[in-house]
From TrEMBL, chain A:
It holds the Pfam family BPD_transp_1. One of its GO terms (molecular function) is dipeptide transmembrane transporter activity. Belongs to the binding-protein-dependent transport system permease family. The keyword Lipoprotein does not apply. InterPro entries: BP-dependent_transpt_permease, MetI-like, MetI-like_sf. This is ABC transporter permease. Its main location: membrane.
TrEMBL record, chain B:
It is a multi-pass membrane protein. This is ABC transporter permease. GO terms for molecular function: dipeptide transmembrane transporter activity. It comes from the Bacteria. It holds the Pfam family BPD_transp_1_N. The chain crosses the membrane at residues 12-30, 104-127, 148-168, 174-192, 232-263, 283-304. It is found in: Cell membrane. Belongs to the binding-protein-dependent transport system permease family. OppBC subfamily. Residues 100-297 form the ABC transmembrane type-1 domain. GO terms for cellular component: plasma membrane. It comes from Alteromonas confluentis. Keywords: Cell membrane, Membrane, Transmembrane, Transmembrane helix, Transport.
Amino acid sequence: MTFIGKLSTQQRTGAVILGCLALFAVAEMFLFSIDGNQQFLAQAFASPDWQAPLGRDQFGRNMFARLAGGLRISFTLSLVCVVTSAVLGVLAGVAAAWRGGWFDNVLNFFANTILALPGLVLILVFAAVVPGSFVMIYLAISLVLWVEYFRLVRAIALNQVASPALQSSMLMGFGKFYLFRRHIWPALKADVFSLAAFGAATSVVAMSSVGFVYVGLKPPTPELGLMIVELFPYYHEAPWLLLEPISLLFLIVLGFHLLAGKAR
Amino acid sequence: MKRILLNRLLQAILMMWSVGTLTFILVRLLPGDMAYKIAAGRYGDDAVSTAAANAVSAELGLDKPAFQQYLHWLWDLLSLDLGNSLVSGAPIIVELQNQLSFTLVLAGCAIVVAALIAFPLGMFCGVKADSGWDRASLTMSTFVRSQPVFCLGLLLIFLFAMELNWFPVAGYGGAPYAILPVLTLAISLAAVSSRVVRNSTRTAVNSAWFEFSRIKGLSSRRAFVRHALPNILLPALAFMGIQLIGLIEGVIMIESLFAWPGIGHGLSHAVFARDIPMLQGTALVMGFLFVLINALVDVSYYLLDPRQQEVQS
């Protein structure tokens, strides 16, 4: 477990927070068989009890199940977004630095086109194409996120490609993959990890923002941003209900930010 | 200087093209027949007939091949003919002008308030680095940064509008309505930039040249203003450029949250109502705002840092 050994205290705290949240999300799915969408109108705004440890919402739905569901959606989204954008961004960045020429120019043009527009605007425009689609939100967020990896990786890889160490390995006839693994990846590793953690936080925030302005996933999906906007009108009846998704969102983002380590 | 502005102009053109293309693709991807939908929007759902749809189709050139329509679409965009809203029927340009003034007020006030919070706080914490004050400010900043800006807005609404009843919850009707949105945006901006100011202040105050300026007999005040301040401002300003995305995204979220009738509010409503011309217009203005503030940051960086001018001239 050398990887954990290298983390700072701050990063470990982040990992512990995320671990607890993930445990809650997964354990709820396997240990309890509560349907988060089942309504019990007579029990609307019921205070927490053994059946529903986190209370019930305006339709009497079990908040415990809904929050765990919301966490699962957020974690799934952040995972697929980070993997997609990191793989694409690193590949494109290394390829652009290595090939150079028109290939580099085309990729740079593409990256600049995306950077010319604030990310959330792009995500909102995509969300308008197919309303309520998880896939569309995922595509939009990944499209915005890969640019960061691309720019960073390209800048670092340019130095590595020109380095004497790589040149001599190349002269000795090592393959491209070996050169990447031996010379380029070690220089990228730390930064890509920290970008990935920030990217995960960004994607969670982006999805909840889209949900919050009501153009993201559709009810009755237990998406955190959507839950916040749905519970907002009932603040006076049950303030704790509204605070639950807000604090979960806060913990996820805090966890990823701590895990990322270095300040941005 | 010229090169900076030229680069930003290029960015603006790129942005226009991508927004135009995206919205064009969007229109074609929408389910259902375009002509019927526009006819429904214009004449009401009950009055739609094949004749009406055909008339719309002929008028807007929907029967032409896609590539021709695309060129036509871009040409309209270039001549700033943004069309009419599919929902209200009013020309987009008029609505945008209306909304833009609201957005500029919000963004402008927020930047000023953010600077008023971030610079004094950051400099104070930088001079007293690692003290109790510094730690408290780091904790606060982490707390604010760890939540989406709309959650911060909600917390302020609970506190100031619902519990204390000091300010109205949302809407627009005069200065009291502006306080909470401006404050939310300003706090979220200041949370990050105060730390940047703090770090550069700390570097400046602990540097050899700052110590030298003290040794040669300048008062601590004079040494700070003459020597430390310019070196604090530059990194902070450079960082502002990066933070702009946060400002624009914050504007979208906060306007939606507080029902502030600006561009961001218009944008999220256009997405919700799938009002494509409006969507295109608001996205364009957001993009232009982004490019414009970027250019302003570049130019002020250039003017403030004499080294930049030497390199280029």
